[in-house]
Amino acid sequence: MQSTIAAVDRLGETRYDSPLHARDTDPSHAGQYISDTQFVPLHITFDQAAERSGNIFFEKAGPRERTFFDAPRTSAAIVTCGGLCPGLNNVIRSLVMSLHCHYGIQRVYGIRYGYHGMNPANGHAPVELTVDAVSDIHETGGTIIGTSRGPEDPKVMVETLRGLGVNILFTVGGDGTQRGALKVYEEAKSQGYPLAVVGVPKTVDNDIQYVSRTFGFGTAVDAARSVIDIAHTEARAVLNGVGIVKLMGRDSGFIAAAATLASGEVNYCLIPELPAALDGPRGLLGVLEERLARKRHAVIVAAEGAGQNLLPKETQQKDASGNIKFGDIGGFLKDRITAHFRGLGRPINVRYIDPSYAIRGLAANTEDAVLCDYFARNAVHAAMSGRTGLVIGYVHNRFVHVPISMATDGRKKVPLDGELWKGLLAVTGQPSSWF
Amino acid sequence: MQSTIAAVDRLGETRYDSPLHARDTDPSHAGQYISDTQFVPLHITFDQAAERSGNIFFEKAGPRERTFFDAPRTSAAIVTCGGLCPGLNNVIRSLVMSLHCHYGIQRVYGIRYGYHGMNPANGHAPVELTVDAVSDIHETGGTIIGTSRGPEDPKVMVETLRGLGVNILFTVGGDGTQRGALKVYEEAKSQGYPLAVVGVPKTVDNDIQYVSRTFGFGTAVDAARSVIDIAHTEARAVLNGVGIVKLMGRDSGFIAAAATLASGEVNYCLIPELPAALDGPRGLLGVLEERLARKRHAVIVAAEGAGQNLLPKETQQKDASGNIKFGDIGGFLKDRITAHFRGLGRPINVRYIDPSYAIRGLAANTEDAVLCDYFARNAVHAAMSGRTGLVIGYVHNRFVHVPISMATDGRKKVPLDGELWKGLLAVTGQPSSWF
Amino acid sequence: MQSTIAAVDRLGETRYDSPLHARDTDPSHAGQYISDTQFVPLHITFDQAAERSGNIFFEKAGPRERTFFDAPRTSAAIVTCGGLCPGLNNVIRSLVMSLHCHYGIQRVYGIRYGYHGMNPANGHAPVELTVDAVSDIHETGGTIIGTSRGPEDPKVMVETLRGLGVNILFTVGGDGTQRGALKVYEEAKSQGYPLAVVGVPKTVDNDIQYVSRTFGFGTAVDAARSVIDIAHTEARAVLNGVGIVKLMGRDSGFIAAAATLASGEVNYCLIPELPAALDGPRGLLGVLEERLARKRHAVIVAAEGAGQNLLPKETQQKDASGNIKFGDIGGFLKDRITAHFRGLGRPINVRYIDPSYAIRGLAANTEDAVLCDYFARNAVHAAMSGRTGLVIGYVHNRFVHVPISMATDGRKKVPLDGELWKGLLAVTGQPSSWF
Amino acid sequence: MQSTIAAVDRLGETRYDSPLHARDTDPSHAGQYISDTQFVPLHITFDQAAERSGNIFFEKAGPRERTFFDAPRTSAAIVTCGGLCPGLNNVIRSLVMSLHCHYGIQRVYGIRYGYHGMNPANGHAPVELTVDAVSDIHETGGTIIGTSRGPEDPKVMVETLRGLGVNILFTVGGDGTQRGALKVYEEAKSQGYPLAVVGVPKTVDNDIQYVSRTFGFGTAVDAARSVIDIAHTEARAVLNGVGIVKLMGRDSGFIAAAATLASGEVNYCLIPELPAALDGPRGLLGVLEERLARKRHAVIVAAEGAGQNLLPKETQQKDASGNIKFGDIGGFLKDRITAHFRGLGRPINVRYIDPSYAIRGLAANTEDAVLCDYFARNAVHAAMSGRTGLVIGYVHNRFVHVPISMATDGRKKVPLDGELWKGLLAVTGQPSSWF
Predict the structure, then answer these.
(1) What SS3 state is found at D185?
(2) Torsion angle of alpha carbons D20, D23, D29, D32, nearest 10°?
(3) Do the beta carbons of residue D6 and residue D401 sit within 8 Å?
(4) What does the pLDDT read at residue B1?
(5) Among all residues of chain B, which has the CA nearest to that of A84?
(6) Among A378, C254, C276, D247, which residue's Cβ finds the most Cβ atoms within 10 Å?
(7) Residue A127 pLDDT grade (very low, low, confident, very high; cuts 50, 70, 90)
(8) CA neighbor of C411 nearest in space, from C213, C251, C270, C200
(9) How confident is the model at residue A321 (pLDDT cuts 50, 70, 90)?
(10) Which residues on neighbouring strands pair with residue C58, listed in sequence order?
């Protein structure tokens, strides 16, 4: 197979010396800039016994020596969309700080309540984001500019940006948001309006492609682990106690799996990537029966999207972002487990905790604070260099440029033959298949 | 009105010098013992303008110079009942430490899974609790000896204790538990078996009479406040966001009120002590409408037992402890508020968080750790002195002896003319009546 | 002995109906106001066997039906002095909220950097504190208006207040600060200027008289306990490990004793109230030797002012507040213990942690957040009623008015025959005297 | 330049089917094993414009299909050395769990107090580590088997292991420890004794080569960030407040730099990799003077080994591990800054916090808990496959085998042209050179 470069669109030639030059007090200081010739491959493990397959090379993110935009005459805007995620305020802060302090951008707008605020008909004018206004916001969760779900007409959005004189738009959101960003990018391009659209990937579920780790994920795992510990405490304190914790993860089980691994107290973890079974020789009810007889308590973690094959098909509802609303796997497991053991005439005490809303609004933990800062700064560098239609990716601990179309083409899944899932099987001792 | 002394039953004369004598290295050390002549009054505020009303005097708790039991020949047992509460393990640890190290009691049993474990038919033999076994348990939540709901036959329980040679029983639990303890005490008395039954009041809701503050309550308020902060973050981040947090408090709104006060971010707090109204001039929906128009977000806290006057009457279910299962006030509010604003054609985003199970299993915070230790030690002193049929009370920062019958006669409520509720009205600005 | 009332000075007759009337939506709502005839006694334990001794009665704090000041024409000022203490921002916030929202005070000034900012010669003009400016400050430690140590001329301070048209001054600080407040009160009085001077007692050490618990203390104990746990971990991990933790407490050992009790892991706790000895039959070195031989690790907690009888007398230095600088008891113990065991030819690993500065800057914990709010609101009520020359006291869980002169006459000490110290002796097993 | 493979020594042919086979319930489950033909390159960034330089390829860590040891007849030992580091107990737990549960190893010894416990003359016999004994230890900091500094004679150590029948030794420690492990490996080899010596790299400073992130580092940065926030609070609360925080980092400034980046509140960060200057045009004192005039407060973070070029040369002392004791850069900065501003006649308030001992004893945070588990499990896989004389490395998020000699040849440094340091310069705005 052929190797390819993940080509990123550019608005034009870089015409200005980077304002970063002026900030460097050390004339001999080398290595500040990333050259356009640097790339990071997607596949890096080398197998002597296997044929070399095709690879994808991503541009390395970072400051360029020359910029496309003339900073003092350029304005930028930031929009945050979708559900809350720890770190949104950190990203906003670092974007504003970097635009103002490093590049000397004079004006940065905060779009109110997601794409909603880019449609003047909704009546929420953008606010100006100054350095003072953002200096302490990283200490709290949420997003100071507000968020919402759902799209707006790309034509209207581009018109709003042109009206504000904005040439740089940072879209902080998940794949729905980035697909919206793609439309804005395409619309601006078709109008010949030089707009750099740079996405900062946001998904607490950690399921965006070519982003090995999204901000907020670590904070979520952290909080999830604490909740699991409490479910463990509850389960241990009663006879045949079963603690069930439902965690975020619609399509991918990263939070559930990582929290399970971190906790060390989970016995069964269900994720969307692996179909589950309750009955049958390796089904959950049977293995749980055996464990309770032996240990008298158990802890089960289920990702939101896990076990959907088990749930009764209802008329599927969707939220404003167009996501299908899932059946409640946690409540379902609670009911089925209770019924099963009652049927056997055995005592059973099931506790079910769903901490999702109490997690998404947390402030970013240390790990995520650093990650947010890196993502934001690299987004600013990319925009200033005139790149557009991309999101900031993160592979092998390196930040890279990923075309939006690639990043939004499918979702990242927990690889069942990878370190995470193998670790989980080792730690829980759960069956590698429920069938 | 006449003042009275809250008389506590005693097994007989105190026949032994307290083993605490031997531990005191300072011969001139005074004040180690509490004399039986010390009392703490229930009412202490004095009003020059009002007639002096009757008062109740409680015995001051603490070590006595002489004991009823001969420590080296006495065994004790500990039972924990009802729902989890932060601090149970601290109480167990301090009971064991004090019995072993201070008094030289040789054998302390831990009854398994509440009163359930006092019936041999259930098949859970008591375990022995040594100093080594309990030395690190205060660092985790739950109860190492397990808990359950529901009673057992007092005759069977006394028989079990006699079989074990136990003459001291510590019952750690709420008013259901202490009513069970009362029956054990009465049964032993009727048999002429010298059994000291001493209750350590446990109620995360803080609703036991003559106990101004129960252990676990502070930890719960702590955690509740964090959740309220997150609900506030969620509410602020979206257009017309309303965060609803349901907190523990079946009959009394102490947790809801204290967390509201601590948070400083709550706009409306509903507690069982004050009937609520949704409609009408001062009803919640109207004041919420007005607030959202002005501020675009709001936070509502509701105690579990609040607003039950609003909920449709269903066939009332009871749990194993005989407590009525309440309707879900949080879900009810969420539905009604959403419907109301949709009816008005206004955007509305309601988030509902119910953190109860994630709170009860926490380890005790610092405040509660100290409180647990005091309660436990005073319980040991009371038992060694031959007192029985009592719980350890706590009034005006002093530990006292309260006959079980008094402590379980009704529940403590948030006084609507007290510091807590007045503070809450001041901080929230909510109406003092919903009607 | 005669009982006395702790009389508080008043600026004059209360001439206005309280603006709180207007806020009460429930006409039948009773009990909102505290009458001037309500008092709380200092001594409440009653001993049948002892002669009744004299008692002190404090006025109960709280809102009065009528006010001295005409709220719409009154301005107030807040000053914070001395070292940081968790909760300062909560107090500022609640003072501002209550003045503005409850009483309708139009203007509240924040004095910059303590009394320093009341002298115009220092060049720091007061800032105006609005509701918006303070709405989120309770989430962070420190004090947004700044603090400093040391006095200014009372004449200059009163002149500054008169210049600003301020008739209410809240002094948030320890006994040095309140002694300064006393001078301001006296100066204003001698000038016939109606100035309500109301102190909010601030001492992380919890050593102010007639204040059973000061804000910030609980947060400090919380943090201290965590550090003790780490010292315990360090000590256990090495051969003959000794962890020494020095905690705040110049004259009183409340933090050291409470953290010791909460931790349950401390073996020896030294406080200023009890002279210590290293040598001799019950000296620390001997008992430590015995313990290490048996357990191979130990944890020692020392209050800052403990063991000063052991330290070499140096020329005593004072800080800007006039406090004597203490010798470093922690370092001294580390050196002496190390030398002692080396002299015996035994391995020894001493770790010394002094977390003081990392504690004082913390945000208030939940407990303290509530306490701050109560103190502040009661200070506002007292000031509006025209009371002056007082601090808000707190006895038996009731807020009271205490004349500054009484509150600053000596310091509160850990009673060696009280619940706290007896509890500590029980938990640590340390000797009740080192001699 | 030639590319090379980092060859790892093996004890011999792998003679047994891995016991992991039996655990896999899914016969069709693929990808459980790592083949010996998989490698991970050290350099992965590709530059079109540069000549390809030599690369180093590391073996990918992970379970092998066949093992060298016959699990049921093999015993293992674990030793932890050097200073405490968050996660030691997690590593011990995961090693024991994996050895027992995955491979069926019957006996695992815990060596007491580091290498010290491998010399019988010191009198500390190894303890047996069962699954029950380790099941809850990951919740606390420290190391349950104890630690110490300093070497023992390799001959004696191998003799001890042979006496115990141990064929697998896990050495958890920093480069001193791993150099000791190298000697044990060489000694065993020279004796022809089949001993698998597998190191788990432990350095809170994160300075081991070919390990992009060591366990404990994240927890340390987390805690350091909290302390920085407090130093910031302290600095802001007083006039010309300067908060100085000294953090761990003898040779490498990773903790200082990462905590600075995470905090977002630091103005100057000194690390060992970059010589510092106080005086001169870009020296710290000058830039600090300028900042205080403008902002009135500042925060400085210094790694332990930073600025050693500034400190007076004293007779260099060494600790038991042979590490040079550094001069106290924090105290030095405090004194010099105070003197400088006093000399200028300006007020100055310097607060210095050194939280080192309060950090190392913490329990692992979530991130580190997962990392510990991965490191430990891969160490077990490596040992079972008969590999020896290696440590588990971690490059580009992949675990690899690194010969001890390579891992201990020099220390990892913060690259001054890398993402971390460039991010730090951007966030702090500090000069890129102090000269």
Answers:
(1) helix
(2) -30
(3) yes
(4) 59
(5) B234
(6) D247
(7) very high
(8) C251
(9) low
(10) C40
pLDDT the model gives residue D316? 58
Tokens 């697998």 locate to D168
In single-letter form, the type of residue at position B50 comes to A
Mean pLDDT of chain A: 94
Q: Residue B41 and residue C41: Cβ atoms within 8 Å?
A: no
Q: Does the pLDDT value for residue B378 go beyond 50?
A: yes
DSSP string, C315-369: PPPB-TT-PBPPP-HHHHHHHHHHHHHHHTT---EEEEE--HHHHHTSPP-HHHH
Tell me which residue in C45, C264, C369 faces B60 most closely, judged by beta carbons.
Answer: C45
Q: Which CATH architecture has domain C4-214+364-407?
A: 3-Layer(aba) Sandwich (3.40)
Query: Residue B353 is inside which H or E element, if any?
Result: strand B349-353
In chain C, pLDDT over 70 holds for what percent of residues? 95
CB A10 within 8 A of CB A68: yes
pTM: 0.95
Q: What is the pLDDT of residues A237-282, one digit of tens each?
A: 999 999 999 999 999 999 999 999 999 999 999 999 999 999 998 9
With a CB cutoff of 8 Å and minimum separation 6, the contacts of C145 are: C78, C79, C80, C92, C110, C111, C112, C113, C117, C127, C129
Q: D141 with C230: CB under 8 angstroms?
A: yes
What homologous superfamily is domain A218-361 in, according to CATH? Phosphofructokinase domain (3.40.50.460)
CA–CA min distance D151, chain C (Å): 15
Structural Rg of chain C based on CA atoms? 24
Provide the chain D residues 358-417 that lie in CB contact (below 8 A) with chain A: 365-367, 369-370, 373-374, 377, 396-399, 416-417
- Across chain C, mean pLDDT equals 94
Residues 10-69 in C contacting B (C-alpha not used; CB under 8 Å):
23-26, 28-32, 35, 37-41, 44-50, 57, 60, 62-63
Q: How far apart are CA D221 and CA D218, in angstroms?
A: 5
Q: Which residues of C are catalytic?
A: 205
Radius of gyration from C-alpha coordinates of chain A? 24
CATH 3.40.50.460 at D217-360, yes or no: yes
Q: By C-alpha distance, which of B384, B389, B293, B385 is closest to B344?
A: B293
**Which of A148, A238, A352 lies nearest to residue B238, judging by beta carbons?**
A148
CATH number 1.20.1260.10 is the correct assignment for the domain at B217-361: no
C234 touches chain D (CB under 8 A): yes
CA–CA dist C92, C380 (Å, integer): 11
- Intervals of CATH 3.40.50.460 along chain B: 217-361
Cβ partners under 8 Å of residue C243, min gap 6:
C228, C230, C231, C232, C234, C235, C297, C298, C299, C300, C350, C351, C353
Chain A partners within 8 Å of C136 (Cβ): 140
Please give the residue of chain A at the shortest CA–CA distance from B348: A148
pLDDT class for A25, splitting at 50, 70, 90? low
Residues of chain D with CATH 3.40.50.450: 4-214+364-407
Flag whether pLDDT at B318 surpasses 80.
no
Helix or strand holding residue B303 (H, E): strand B297-303
* Contacts A–C by Cβ distance under 8 A: 5
Contact A140 C140 (CB under 8 A): no
CATH 3.40.50.460 residue ranges of chain D are: 217-360
Q: By three-state DSSP, how is residue C169 classified?
A: strand
Within 8 A of B138 by CB-CB distance, chain D residues are none
Q: In chain D, which residues have their Cβ closer than 8 Å to the Cβ of B136?
A: 140
- Residue ranges, chain D, pLDDT below 70: 1, 23-31, 313-322
Let me know how long chain A is: 435
